[in-house]
Amino acid sequence: MPRFVSLRPDAALIPLPWATPLEAWPDDLLVALPRGLSRHVVRFIGVGEAIYAAKEINGDIARHEFQMLTDLNRLGQPAVEPVGIVTDRVDDDGFPLDDVLLTQHLQFALPYRSLFTRGIRHDTVLRLLDALVVLVVRLHLVGFMWGDITLSNVLFRRDAETFSAYLVDAETGELHPHLSKGQRRHDIANGMTNIYGDFLDLKAGGGLDSSLDPGNLVKLIEARYNELWAELTVTEEFSGTDLGRIENRVRRLNALGFDVAELDVDASPGDRIRIRPVVVEPGHHSRRLMRLTGLDTEENQARRLLSDLDRYRARAGLQHTDESIAAHRWLTRVFEPVLAAIPPELQDKRESAQLYHELLDYRWFQSQRERRDVPLDEALPGYINDVLKRLPDEVLPSALAPTDQQHDDEEPMPEDPWDIALESVPSVSTLDRATLLARSKA
Ligand SMILES: Nc1ncnc2c1ncn2[C@@H]1O[C@H](COP(=O)(O)OP(=O)(O)OP(=O)(O)O)[C@@H](O)[C@H]1O
Ligand SMILES: [Mg+2]
């Protein structure tokens, strides 16, 4: 009998065929979802309502990765959630099998190979890279040395017009109280070598526009990492008459999506003042939206929803009403009715906040085209027909047979059903402004 080590035990996992190597599991237990490249066998298993990612690895590594993921989740970092480890596996002939690390499948997440499809636009690539930079900076801020930054070890989720990135592979990670400059540099240097290789592969496979140069992209990631790191951590010094600089610094950090939980202000050396953010917390807008509405969204989705809430407040004459009351009205009279009007078979196409954001974009373009202020409920049928119906599902490709194939670096890449589904869509970001603008001009 195998042993289960788990934080949140799910009894439905116990009867699964643990005596069989993951590679040989029957199709009816597996779920076909997009997946990045990996050395180990990784498969998605469906048990009841839940989907878990199962990775077959050596016991010590499994335990280490489980611990790292648990720590990162405890620290509120964007990483996949660990579920447990299955150890002491033995096959039918009595031979020992590797352990299985189970993580919660990250819903609506896309590996980069599903995003870098033919025709991916320049600025979409830059947004993906920005998301990666934010992730690495966040991890470094809490003292996490990743040791294996690659595109395959990251998952991307749509976040309004941008993306947010999640860590998926913590095998080589180490958590320290603090990272030295040398440690950070080392992590970045290694990572850039890996990512350079990822880009070369993409280029060879036609997934990277010829105008994008792998060397330049990697330099860009490094430059943006340094910029963001400096903005979040560097000590600023100015004259005591220039106190507005303190507020400016806080605003700049808010605009980047960070709250300043602790700012060190040192006014001791005479007329000079020195400020340094000591604790910065990501999620400035998402925390505010959560507080007002209970909606749990990504940062830029929250930004967009909050500005829609402001607009609603102004229009409904609720500027002087308590903010949380206005927010509750917006939630129950605007946001929820929109979601309730989406036909059930289309609800898996997008996460709620993302769908609402895209509808706002759609309404904006329709308003531009028709030179009038189109109400949301009038824009909704167009959005459903022109956009939602044409998108592939991002939760479960239910139209696809439940097969799953391991991608191995050495083998020719098997066709991924997900990639085929994506190719039928004009562009991954069917709905960003530039595409819609082009469409509305046409
Ligand atoms: N919880 C999860 N949710 C969604 N996708 C996941 C999850 N866990 C793993 N994956 C997918 O499986 C892929 C491989 O996982 P992972 O990187 O952990 O394997 P690995 O064999 O350790 O990789 P490496 O070759 O880098 O050592 C990921 O790129 C990701 O696409
Ligand atoms: Mg990996």
Structure overview:
With 442 residues, this protein is of the alpha+beta class. The protein has 5 domains: 3-105, Phosphorylase Kinase, domain 1 (2-Layer Sandwich), CATH 3.30.200; 110-233, Transferase(Phosphotransferase), domain 1 (Orthogonal Bundle); 236-282, no CATH class; 284-340, no CATH class; 349-442, no CATH class. The protein is 42% helix and 17% strand. The protein contains 13 helices and 15 strands. It has helices at residues 59-74, 112-115, 122-141, 181-204, 214-233, 244-255, 284-293, 299-315, 323-340, 352-370, 376-386, 417-423, 433-441, and strands at 3-6, 42-47, 50-57, 82-87, 89-90, 96-97, 99-104, 109-110, 144-145, 154-159, 162-167, 174-175, 236-239, 258-266, 272-282. The strands form 5 sheets. The chain has a 5-stranded antiparallel sheet with strand order 1-4-7-3-2, with helices on one face. A 3-stranded antiparallel sheet has the order 8-10-11. A 3-stranded antiparallel sheet has the order 13-15-14, with helices on one face. A hairpin with a 5-residue loop joins strand 5 and strand 6. It is globular. Bound molecules: adenosine-5'-triphosphate and magnesium ion (MG). The site of adenosine-5'-triphosphate has 22 residues, from strand 3 and strand 7.
